[in-house]
Amino acid sequence: MKRILQFKVYKGEKYYIGEGIDLPIVTQGRTLDEVTANLQTALELHLEDEDLAEIGVAPHPTALVNFELDTAVYA
């Protein structure tokens, strides 16, 4: 059973995109704070009426969010 649900956040053209690695969840936000809050809300809604054992998720899971940085540019 998964105790940690993973997400990745990356910069799109206009917004930051938050995407689930373990669950089919995608959201966006203008700032990192906004996309993080949107991910939390989306996760809560996704798991709201689910039988967690049936989808392989432990009770009270935590979320791990990785932020993808642009390629470093050296002058």
Structure description:
The structure is a single chain. By secondary structure, the protein is an alpha+beta fold. It has a single domain, classed as TTHA1013-like (TTHA1013/TTHA0281-like). Helices cover 21% and strands 40% of the residues. It has 1 helix and 4 strands. It has one helix at 32-47; strands at residues 2-11, 16-20, 26-29, 57-67. The protein has a 4-stranded mixed β-sheet, covered by helices on one side. β2 (16-20) and β3 (26-29) form a beta hairpin. It is elongated, with a radius of gyration of 14 Å. It starts with a strand and ends in an 8-residue tail after the last strand.
Provide mean pLDDT, rounded.
92
Q: Helix amount, in percent?
A: 10-25%
Question: Which oligomeric state applies?
Answer: single chain
Largest sheet: 4 strands, mixed
Task: Draw up the topology in text.
Blueprint: E1 2-11, E2 16-20, E3 26-29, H1 32-47, E4 57-67
Parallel strand pairs: 1-4
Antiparallel strand pairs: 1-2, 2-3
Q: What would a concise description of this structure say?
A:
This protein is an alpha+beta fold and 75 residues long.
Tag the structure with descriptive keywords.
75 residues; alpha+beta; 4 strands; four-stranded mixed β-sheet; 1 helix
